[in-house]
Amino acid sequence: MVLFPASPKPFPGTTTRGEENLLPQPRETGQVVPVGQNGNATTVTKDGLKAKPWAHFVAGGLGGMAAATLTSPLDVLKTRLQSDFYQAQLRQLHAQHHVPQKITFTSVPRAAYFHLAETVQLLNAIYQHEGFRALFRGLGANIIGVVPARSINFFVYGNGKRILNNYLNPDGRENVWTVHLLAAATAGIATGTATNPIWVVKTRLQLDKHNASNDPFRGRQYKNSWDCIRQTVRHEGIRGLYRGLSASYLGVTESTLQWVLYERMKLGLARREAKRLAAPGYQQTFADSLEEFGGKFGAAAGAKLFAAVVTYPHEVVRTRLRQAPTVISETGRPTMKYTSLIQCFRLVAKEEGMAGLYGGMTPHLLRAVPSAAIMFSTYEIVLRLFGTTS
Predict the structure, then answer these.
(1) Per the record, which residues fall in region Disordered (predicted)?
(2) What predicted TM-score, i.e. pTM, was given to this entire model?
(3) Less CB within 10 Å around the terminal CB: N or C of the chain?
């Protein structure tokens, strides 16, 4: 945390540092200016911090790694609840607890309580029947995917925001939401294309367990990540590693919405901080820095919560498209039950109702919201340590 020193008393008619902060600063807009008279001068932001493009890459990777490790058990559970492998077990559980099929205003609290209890119960069941390691199944592939994915995403977004800002917001006096929207969309597309094979492997490893079928003599299908890649390419070709890519592109809407909301919330926090800095004789304390950190932590969580709820069905469809072949064809070979984005939407809605498109949302939110808060907070902290700005 950086403690801001008290501002000296200004001369009459001049503008204080705090009053300048009432307007969005370069750390919100991404604007940078050159220092010195030649084109090779060091590039720094207007608030004195150097613009280090590589810092976004490192900070994003570290943030993603921390979040993935701490929330892995909920990620495993979310993936299983989104898959159709476990729907029969869940329907039996719902019948035992008389969960209402049609959610009404009066049934919302009971349904919410049940889904929370169900999450805890299923996590305990995984631990009891499969052991502690099962709660972290696929974590290796997840981290291998998360680190480059978040590194690419934050790198493209952070630097894309700065570059786009030079064209769309040359005066640097406004927080242009279109800059954030375009930068976030570009980052989402680049990230999804580059890392989709890793997420396919991660999803299939999480769905692969000893008791996945009723055949007691059948063990796990995949020995490890490499075996999963080998079998996928052998039976489905290279295209098998890009299952769910269309749903990933659809998911760009979530990450874009999340980034835009996060930036708007940060702008509000910056303006509030600027007013406080403008107060005569103000000196920032550790409590103020802690409040600033908590504000950004809450902004990241709130932005993720809203974006995830609005766009959640694409998560289910993406998981279904990535799972291993589950239907035996006339030739005796396993084939894909879900073949395309639209077909998957229609089939899930037909077989399971619209509720099927929201399967696993409770553990998803329990994982995704704190995960986003941890990731974005780590990202901001690492950038501060590197002496640069977001």
Answers:
(1) 1-38
(2) 0.70
(3) N
